[in-house]
Amino acid sequence: MITNTTIPAITPEELKALWPDHPAHKTEHTEDSLSFTTMYDPKPWPFPEGIDYDWNRLAIDLNTPPPDSTLAVLDERAKNYGKFSGIGQLTQTFKEIMRQAPSWETMQPDQKESLEMIVHKLARILNGNPDYADSWVDIAGYARLVSERLETGLER
Predict the structure, then answer these.
(1) In this structure, are 75 and 37 located in the same domain?
(2) Which domain holds residue 24?
(3) Residue 73 has what pLDDT?
(4) In sequence order, which residues have a C-beta less than 8 Å from that of residue 102 and are 6 or more positions away?
(5) Do residues 74 and 44 share a domain?
(6) Residue 107, C-beta contacts closer than 8 angstroms, at least 6 positions apart
(7) How many other β-carbons are positioned within 10 Å of the β-carbon of residue 80?
(8) 75-95, pLDDT tens digit by residue?
(9) What pTM was computed for the model?
(10) Would you say the C-alpha torsion 106, 109, 114, 120 has a positive or negative sign?
């Protein structure tokens, strides 16, 4: 059986993201719609997670992408840290300053990494919610990793 479905308001990029490189379909794109023809196969095909196998619902499912846990995490983090571009700008500015400091080249890798992680956390605080305790706890943790190694030789 061959089915032909026209789905309004979806781009080829969106379709590919939902159903990447599946060998059983071809796409044609016009300004108003995207058409694809699919050969029906009763065996389950490797649909992306969240796409319903029911052919009657395929158009609905493609117009309503499955929940993306990555986007949910990014949205949640933005509430505490602000826009990622702001964090990036602050962090890279701090790192550039650190790399020009006189002792930078003589520091051990864990010291450099600790400072880089601390400035990343500082950028999150300055760009976002300064009352989010986890950022402050992380700063203390990165500093403690280096201080314990220097004081006791303990490496975690």
Answers:
(1) no
(2) 2-63
(3) 87
(4) none
(5) no
(6) 115
(7) 15
(8) 889 999 999 999 999 999 999
(9) 0.56
(10) positive
